[in-house]
Hints:
By secondary structure, the chain is mainly alpha-helical. It has helices at residues 42-58, 60-63, 70-85, 96-114, 130-136, 142-158, 165-171; strands at residues 14-17, 20-23, 27-30, 33-36, 117-118, 125-126. It is 47% helix and 11% strand. The strands form 3 sheets. A two-stranded antiparallel ribbon has the order 1-2. Strands 3-4 form a two-stranded antiparallel ribbon. Helix 1 (42-58) packs antiparallel against helix 3 (70-85). The longest helix is centred in the middle third of the chain and has 19 residues, at 96-114.
Amino acid sequence: MVMSRDQNAGRIQSGRFDNSTFERVEEFQYLGTTLTDQNSIEEEIKRRLRSGNACYHLVQNLLSSRLLSKNLKIQIYRTITLPVALYGCEAWSLTLQEERKLRVFKNMVLRRIFGPRRDEVTGEWRRMHNEELNDLYSSPNIVRVIKLRRMRWAWHVARMGEERGVYRVLVGKPEGKRPMGTPKH
């Protein structure tokens, strides 16, 4: 995969290295994460949310059961569904739209856990509002969890030795000039 600001850099269909030929691809999976030639994380977040949604549907009967306590349902959400949805989130740079998608996913699962609420005035059943869900679920919101994981990863990288490539990327200064215009991220 060729990642470059130059649009013509990826025109070559294959490359050679040590008597091995590699085909050019626009995206591939590495350690469970999808990497693209546009260096966009948007598709990876969509894929993670689809995986989290699939995991949610596997345990949906447990989360809607009246036999289990709400605390047990929350533990199921934290230990099964949330890690699937947030795998690799330490490397995500989120836009507001992606943060909104993550919050919608979290609220969908929490609404299933806590169930509908009876309105005191009309006596009808209704869906819970986001503020009510946040009051019942005392853990920090999903975007804050991602930011905390990123900080924990940055601290881990900062303690690595200078010979490690990840550390050199963290403290290194890129050579050359930036291209004209506003950066994408």
